[in-house]
Input
Amino acid sequence: MSLRFLSQKVAQAIDEELMSAQGGFSIDQLMELAGLSVAQAVQKSYDASTHPRVLVCVGPGNNGGDGLVAARHLTHFGYQPSIYYPKQSSKDLYQRLLIQCKNLNTPLVPEEQFASHVEQNTDVILDAVFGFSFHGEVREPFKKVIDIFETTGKPIVSVDIPSGWDVSTGPTKQVSFQPSVLISLTAPKACAQRFKGERHFLGGRFVPPSLAQKFDFVVPAYPQGDQVVELKQL
Output
């Protein structure tokens, strides 16, 4: 099966259509479905008995929201997530997602403990910092996060694209880390062609066939009740 790799422009257009009057989705719904897909991909890649401690690194936008949703589901899946959220959004949606995690006693990692938490209290890092709309140079407080991604030996799972990569061309001179696992959402972005990690999943079991046809991309068959499909199996 031949997959299409989406440009930033097309990916944005698909999101807008999904949330239009014709698409019928709300941002809350798409974030919930994306976060559930991410949590399931983590579960398929790292068993909770051997890799229970998942550090979720949360960015300021929708990618970060996906990470907060994933953290909640991971708790219910038997993991012990923690959250590093250095630039919290004041928007109601993100505050409610954070409250949901706090109600499950998910700890927030203080900035001064971030580096030591990665090395001493983390089995897997979930990269939910920047999505496909990111461009430009990574600035603080997220430069510290990306620097850790570049140097750590802990496995990294990236949501949609590896944070800081160019969505079209992939690794840059400033950001070149390779996650162990990539979870593309809706359809793989162009930079995914430069992914060299161990497992590549697709999450997005919400795309109607008419939308896929309009934008000329493939919606693969998802197995049974799974919210993700591993692309190397296609």
